[in-house]
Write a structure and sequence with these properties.
mainly alpha, two-stranded antiparallel sheet, 6 helices, 2 strands, 77% helix, 5% strand
Length: 170
Amino acid sequence: MTQYLANGLALGAQIGIIGLGFWFVYRTTRALHFAHAAAILAGAYGVLAAVQWTGSPFFLAVVFGVGVGSLVGVLIELCVYAPLRRRGSSRIQIFVASLGLYLITQNTISLAFGDDPQSYYPGFGSAVVVFLGAAVTSVQIIAVLCFVGCFVVAWALLRYTVTCKQLRSE
């Protein structure tokens, strides 16, 4: 039972990080941004590309992947969403555009990496710690710690910055 709880907590932490990003985007734009998943997907494959194609160490590959995901997100905003908003497009039009962007990104990644599932486990990722009867990998621990860090930063931003206080009040 504790193993299921540990696995669920680690998976929930990963989903929670994505959910925090999705919430911030929705809260600021009032549009459903399914292309957010495309930026996350591009970032993950950026890590994989850096490791497979250049042999980069894991932490440099993560920095590269974050850069790739961020670049995709900025390009989506500048090239698609901003022009649509300037034209006065409705939320449904922006929603349809975001679905199209997701499909384009997903298929571009399929062309570059193939359709088979890809995985990468860094050398430290296979270390297992037994905690309260559950075998927990270091990757799962890092996922939970990253979620806690992201949650604390999001809470602090929402609590103490003027811009984020305005987001809460809308």
